[in-house]
Amino acid sequence: MKTRYRPWPGITLVLCVACGAQPAEPPTPQAGTLRPTANASVHQEPAPKASRCDLGPVVHKARTQAAPPENVTCRAQSAQNLDWVEAQLRKRYPRKSQSSRTIVDFRCDPIGSIRRALLVFGEGHAQGLTVVGMSVPPGTEGDVVIRTSEYRRARETYTDYSYAYADRYEASFGQATLPLSTVGPLLARARTSLLGTIHLVEVESNVMGWSDTFTSASWFRSVELYDANSGKLATSIFRVPVGEDGLSDAIARELALETLSPLVPAQSVPISPTAEHVSDVLDAFAVVRTGWAKTPLLGIAAHTRSAAMIAHVLAELRQSNVNHPDRVDAVGALAKLTGWDARYAEDGAPRSIDDVSQDYLNECSKLHAGY
């Protein structure tokens, strides 16, 4: 029996005193005397940096997530969205056997009104990754701010994963706005999609003994929706391989992402990364824990020039002590982040990856014990 939860410009003030009058000339100090003004400060040389990895204080942090509520009240969903999601799940779930039938159900929705969203999606073989953050205003009016952080690499073959090859990519940041009246209905439909589950009964296996339900794709997909208290609705990753156990969630999350994809601007206004962009990328690190998607995420992180990213890149460098391309990507990110490129000797010759990795670990670990 199918269970459904239904219903569902700032102003700058400039003060000018006696603007038309010419300022009086200050008296000339007598030779050999010093007359500092009351607010004068003594010039001091800046303190030397503790490390060549020092980008200043860590002012950006990943957004905190709320603990699941003890007494859950399930939020109702619209009948129209429930019917649409059910039809889409049945349509997308592969069925090779006519005797199999699908069961659709919907989980409980425990969070409040959506205030932000995080989408992470990309193409296989590290050719591209996009992080999208959405900030949703309270109420029923206003604009939704949509931020994009993107990594793109031209498709090319290589015989050696060199430092120069690792640097051949582009990272960009953009921002756009859309009215809540446009975004709201799509967020509601994506929300219902994340709640949907589907599974087969009476599944017949083929003669080779493999499951009748299997798909794979070199894609990365993640969708997260949050309320004002940072309560998270759901998240899932769609990556190769996806077998029978993970297929239901993968289809539901792909459906949610497709629902929201029209909101992602094809050409947003290019800007320098803001504090909100940095928080989006930090949140994405919690989603992209392993796999090929780490490479483009490191590239995006490097171009934020935020001190908060160093810990994440160092963690990747420590974990990638075997896989040579991963270490090349990590040291390349540190070179861009810090402006200190330890990958090359004074004569321009590339140094060994072992020596470079150790130099960055030694130097950057001076900043915080947690690194």
Largest sheet: 6 strands, antiparallel
Number of helical elements: 9
The Cα radius of gyration reads 27 Å
| Mean pLDDT metric | 75
Q: How many DSSP E strands?
A: 8
Report the portion of residues in β strands: 15-25%
The strands making up the biggest β-sheet line up spatially as 7-2-3-4-5-8
Low-confidence stretches: 1-48, 205-217, 236-243
The coarse overall form would be globular
- The end-to-end distance, rounded to whole angstroms, is 51 Å
What percent of residues adopt helix (DSSP H or I)?
25-40%
Query: How would you classify the helix and strand content by structural class?
Result: alpha+beta
N to C succession of SSEs: HEEEEHEHEEHEHHHHH
Question: How would you characterize the overall build of this protein?
Answer:
This protein is α+β, with helices and mostly antiparallel strands and 371 residues long. The chain has a domain at 79-274. 30% of the residues lie in helices and 16% in strands. It is built from nine helices and eight strands. It has a six-stranded antiparallel sheet with strand order 7-2-3-4-5-8, sandwiched between helices. Strands 1-6 form a two-stranded antiparallel sheet. A hairpin with a 4-residue loop joins strand 2 and strand 3. Helix 7 (308-319) packs across helix 9 (353-364) and helix 8 packs across helix 9. The longest helix has 17 residues, at 244-260. The two termini are 51 Å apart. Mean pLDDT is 75; it is low at 1-48, 205-217 and 236-243.
